[in-house]
């Protein structure tokens, strides 16, 4: 289903929108739809406070760590463990 949205612009702003739409070779309506989609994409998908709380909760955990060279060596040894000599 589609719905109509009415937006009131002053004359100068409307001329700017019309000029921008004409420059993109599209109708004002299509230009506005694309501008609204772009604005929505720039909005964070989730509440930043919630995202920060999740990161802080994860940081409270103590996870095993090691030297990166040791970890990579362990991984390489693991790849070779299943090979027949």
Describe the 3D structure.
The chain has 85 residues and is mainly alpha-helical. It has one domain (11-81). Helices cover 64% and strands 0% of the residues. It has 4 helices and no strands. The protein has helices at residues 11-23, 28-42, 48-59, 68-81. The protein is elongated and about 75 Å long. The mean pLDDT is 89.
Write the layout of secondary structure elements.
Elements: H1 11-23, H2 28-42, H3 48-59, H4 68-81
Stretches with pLDDT under 50, minimum 5 residues: none
**Percent helix range:** 55-70%
SSE run: HHHH
- The proportion of strand residues reads under 5%
What characterizes the major β-sheet? none
Number of domains: 1
Q: Indicate the radius of gyration in whole angstroms.
A: 27 Å
In DSSP terms (H or I, runs of 4 or more residues), the helix count works out at 4
The termini sit apart by 65 Å
Structural class: mainly alpha
Q: Can you give the mean pLDDT?
A: 89
Oligomer: single chain
Shape: elongated
Beta strand count: 0
Summarize it.
The chain has 85 residues and is mainly α. The termini are far apart. It has helices at residues 11-23, 28-42, 48-59, 68-81.
Q: What are the main properties of this structure?
A:
85 residues, mainly alpha, 4 helices, single chain
